[in-house]
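Risk register update: the risk of archive-format incompatibility is retired. Evidence:
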Amino acid sequence: MRSILYDLKRYKAIDPAARSLLEIILLYPGFHARLLHYFNHFLYNHKLYFLARLFSQFTRWLTGIEIHPGAQIGKGFVIDHGMGVVIGETTIVKNDVTIFHQVTLGGRTSEKGKRHPTIEDGVMIGAGAKILGNITIGKNAKIGANAIVLKDVPEEYIAVGIPANIFPSKKEA
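Archived output:
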């Protein structure tokens, strides 16, 4: 319950259009997808894989957001707008991460094991970005809209372009 309340408060803090917690609860598909992921991930962790996938497909139908039930997601995760977001099975998303619509956190191989990205605390991922493979996006990094990221991004860096070029943030420049 604390994680859900934390998520709600983070939505309110991040989105200037959010007028109330009730509005977020009733009208935000990113919040709905995250809330349902808690349940789907619980089923997945208890080896109820078919049910976890079944309910995750329902979540996808309901919200337009596809989060594999095996994905590990920390508290304060915000999906703003959300339509078309895809998060793969072995993805790890730490705390206070914000992503926008059409983002893919996907794999580059069909091999078993860790094949999706790890997103550290405080990362912001712009609309349409694709982060592919077993790579790490460092703490407080920013990924620009439509960037295609295929290699690690250090902490506090910015990645933009296709393929992404990586630059220090203005704080470090």
